[in-house]
Write a structure and sequence with these properties.
The relative contact order is 0.13. Strand 3 and strand 4 form a beta hairpin. It is built from 5 helices and 5 strands. The longest helix is centred in the N-terminal third of the chain and has 22 residues. It is an alpha+beta fold. It has a 3-stranded mixed beta sheet with strand order 4-3-5, with no helix packed on it. Strands 1-2 form a two-stranded antiparallel sheet.
């Protein structure tokens, strides 16, 4: 019975972590942002539990992970491979259709096994560009 309770609690925690990532929309939250959102509903949840559940959801292919601004992992409600644009002005993260950069082909031709790729473009989003004076 105690094992069933632990399993149920972990399932609820995982469900709340998944819901927090999905509710984030295009913001691609960090683990700390997910933790704050989950903690609002489960005050006793630990940051470690959130990290473990994020990893598990990623391993299961239910969420994506990207390192958009250096080495900090950002969690993506879209698990399928795609690229990103990070706006220099407002910080918005825009999902883009997946591309296959020439580096992937070059790596494979050189005998490397490419598991995944992420292309991150930096610039100004459409909304910020519209604010430019004419």
């Amino acid at each position: 019975m105690a094992a069933d309770l632990r399993r149920g609690r972990a399932t609820r925690q995982r469900a709340l972590v998944l819901a927090a990532v999905r509710a984030s929309g295009a913001t691609h939250p960090t683990a700390e942002h997910v933790f704050a959102r989950v903690r609002a509903e489960l005050p006793r949840v630990s940051l470690g539990t959130v990290y473990r559940n994020l990893q598990r959801l990623s391993d299961e292919g239910r969420i994506g992970v990207a390192r958009l601004d250096g080495r900090v992992a950002r969690y993506d409600p879209v698990a399928e491979g795609h690229d990103h644009l990070v706006c220099d002005d407002c910080g918005q993260v825009v999902d883009l259709p997946a591309s296959r950069p020439s580096g992937v082909h070059a790596a494979r031709r050189a005998g490397h096994a490419v598991r995944a790729h992420t292309l991150v473009l930096y610039g100004r989003c459409r909304a910020c560009r519209r604010k430019e004076p004419a």
